[in-house]
């Protein structure tokens, strides 16, 4: 007979789990004791459950395997809510394990007790309270299966104290071998026929296309056909953005240079679209027809109702289309690339502005210059995300981790920490606003304790800059969004990290190179000039794009 908590850990080991991130409580002590004897799973103690959840989700984002995090009941479990929503909307496989008081006989009344399973239902793919040790293998296997299959997301298991100490003769279940179904040949033929009959087709690469093999198949398809492509924010890097057919990233929903290219198309092929992202374009009745290629049918939305759907494994669907299609010598595609050329001319000119405090376009370019091809930037949430989505050229998949799904603040630092753990030989840079950084800044201690090699760049404007930008755009007076900050250099040093403050545009270059090439945890306090955000992003770009 096996103790239930030992069996639970054995089930995690059977799923290939490497890490558990979390803040245990007294209701997890049986599981903690069982974990202490595991030679496969390493416990990563964090300073807040939200940090643990963001790390687990990012592990899932990088590997395709569910990251695992643990917390106690009540307040520990409620601190997982934002991370659960982050993983669920962002398509990141994750399993949360929370403790609970004994469910068969408890002498503590309702102290700390919430209905966590019911709380998790709207923001997970699977949530379950274990009521018997015998069921652990099937429930754990089901949680992993659902978390990892398309569309990936969050799963949750509640593990009560009295169940954890039960004895059972159950044994772990091995994961089954599965393959995603391939798209129907008739749907492939319909899509190819539409493409061959089009005059100016365009490809839009979205969140669901950021999967193993899809990048390779898409590149082959683009090389064969020469059809130009753009990406959503979550599709950045699926194809190397230095490719001559790249049209840009739809960081804004409308009015940008890239949207002029979309308007010039007479057929849009939307690959891996997910309605959780801000729409990269708006469909209209009688407008440009759309082909939807994804693992699931299109979720109908007021601005999204495609005419042709190709449903199945995306990489295989693209391969089938590549094999079938005969490139059309009459396609007119060059005019779309003119919009990209105009965007680059505008952006490159802005990036030369070496003012201080630092101008966002200059910042984006200098970070691109400093990062190697496989370097990973992890963005928190703020107005700088738009600057990076538009201007930062991604060379490889998952080298620009931004959140265009839940778009939560506070995830930048934990996602960079996880990236550094998954890829210890690659350069990792967290880019955070001062507001977002302070929401999980305590995880600096975790990063130092783990001896990670990474840099945190704080864009310091002493305000919630994204909302100030919107406030200005809506014509409201500048009010209610400014605050003070700690001395970030001393703050970093207090955790045992290295702290620096940018003093000029040239100094920024030096600090980016120094922190990139020096082991350890670094923090750079970078004053930033957001004064032209509204003028450039809301007025200039739209005016220039419209005039082209």
Q: Treating each run of at least 4 consecutive H or I residues as one helix, how many helices? A: 22
Radius of gyration, in angstroms, nearest whole number: 24 Å
Termini separation: 74 Å
Q: In which order are the strands of the major sheet placed?
A: 3-2-4-5-7-6
Largest sheet: 6 strands, parallel
Class by SSE composition? alpha/beta
Unreliable stretches (pLDDT < 50, length at least 5) are: none
Strand residue percentage? 15-25%
Helix fraction, binned, reads 25-40%
Q: Mean pLDDT score, rounded?
A: 95
Shape: globular
Number of strands: 20
Model description:
There is one protein chain. With 548 residues, this protein is an alpha/beta fold. Helices cover 40% and strands 17% of the residues. The chain has 22 helices and 20 strands. It has a six-stranded parallel sheet with strand order 3-2-4-5-7-6, with helices on both faces. The chain has a six-stranded parallel sheet with strand order 11-10-9-12-13-14, sandwiched between helices. A six-stranded parallel sheet has the order 16-15-17-18-20-19, with helices on both faces. Helix 10 runs parallel beside helix 12. The longest helix has 17 residues. The radius of gyration is 24 Å and the shape is globular. The termini are far apart. The mean pLDDT is 95.
């Amino acid at each position: 007979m096996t103790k239930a908590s030992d069996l639970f850990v054995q089930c995690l080991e059977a799923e290939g789990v490497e890490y558990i991130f979390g803040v245990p409580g007294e209701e997890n002590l049986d599981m903690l004791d069982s974990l202490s004897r595991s030679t496969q799973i390493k416990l990563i103690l964090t300073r807040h459950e939200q940090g643990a959840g963001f790390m687990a989700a990012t592990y899932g984002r990088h590997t395709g395997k569910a990251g695992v995090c643990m917390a106690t009941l009540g307040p520990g479990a409620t601190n997982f809510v934002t991370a659960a929503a982050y993983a669920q909307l962002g398509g990141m496989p994750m399993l949360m394990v929370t403790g609970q008081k004994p469910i068969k006989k408890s002498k503590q009344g309702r102290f700390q007790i919430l209905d966590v399973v019911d709380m998790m239902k709207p923001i997970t793919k699977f949530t379950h309270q274990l009521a018997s040790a015998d069921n652990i293998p099937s429930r754990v296997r089901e949680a992993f299966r659902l978390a990892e299959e398309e569309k990936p997301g969050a799963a949750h298991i509640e593990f009560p104290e009295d169940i954890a100490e039960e004895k059972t003769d159950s044994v772990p279940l091995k994961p089954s071998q599965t393959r995603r179904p391939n798209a129907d040949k008739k749907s492939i033929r319909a899509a190819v026929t539409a493409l061959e009959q089009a005059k100016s087709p365009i490809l839009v690469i979205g969140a669901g296309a950021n999967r193993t093999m899809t990048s390779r198949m898409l590149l082959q398809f683009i090389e064969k056909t020469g059809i130009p492509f753009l990406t959503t924010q979550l599709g950045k890097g699926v194809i190397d953005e230095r490719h001559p057919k790249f049209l840009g990233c739809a960081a804004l929903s409308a009015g940008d240079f890239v949207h002029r290219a979309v308007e010039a198309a007479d057929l849009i092929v939307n690959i891996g679209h997910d309605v959780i992202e801000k729409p990269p374009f708006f469909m209209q009745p009688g407008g440009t027809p759309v082909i939807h290629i994804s693992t699931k049918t299109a979720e109908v939305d007021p601005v999204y109702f495609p005419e042709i759907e190709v449903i199945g494994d995306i990489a295989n669907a693209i391969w089938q289309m590549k094999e079938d299609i005969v490139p059309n010598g009459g396609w007119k595609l060059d005019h779309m690339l003119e919009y990209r050329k105009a965007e680059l001319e505008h952006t490159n000119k802005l990036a030369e502005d070496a003012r201080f405090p630092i101008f966002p376009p200059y910042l984006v370019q200098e970070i691109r210059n400093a990062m190697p091809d496989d370097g990973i930037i992890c963005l928190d949430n703020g107005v700088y995300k738009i600057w990076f989505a538009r201007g930062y050229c991604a060379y490889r998949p998952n080298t620009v981790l931004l959140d265009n799904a839940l778009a939560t603040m506070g995830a930048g630092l934990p996602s960079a920490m996880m990236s550094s753990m998954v890829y210890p030989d690659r350069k990792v840079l967290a880019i955070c606003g001062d507001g977002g950084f302070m929401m999980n800044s305590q995880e600096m201690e975790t990063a130092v304790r783990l001896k990670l090699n990474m840099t945190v760049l704080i864009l310091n404007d002493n305000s919630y800059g994204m909302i100030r930008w919107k406030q200005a755009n809506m014509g409201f007076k500048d009010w209610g969004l400014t605050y003070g900050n700690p001395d970030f250099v001393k703050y970093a040093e207090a955790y045992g990290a290295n702290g620096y403050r940018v003093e000029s545009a040239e100094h920024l270059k030096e600090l980016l190179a120094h922190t990139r090439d020096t082991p350890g945890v670094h923090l750079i306090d970078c004053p930033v000039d957001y004064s032209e955000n509204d003028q450039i992003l809301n007025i200039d770009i739209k005016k220039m794009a419209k005039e082209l």
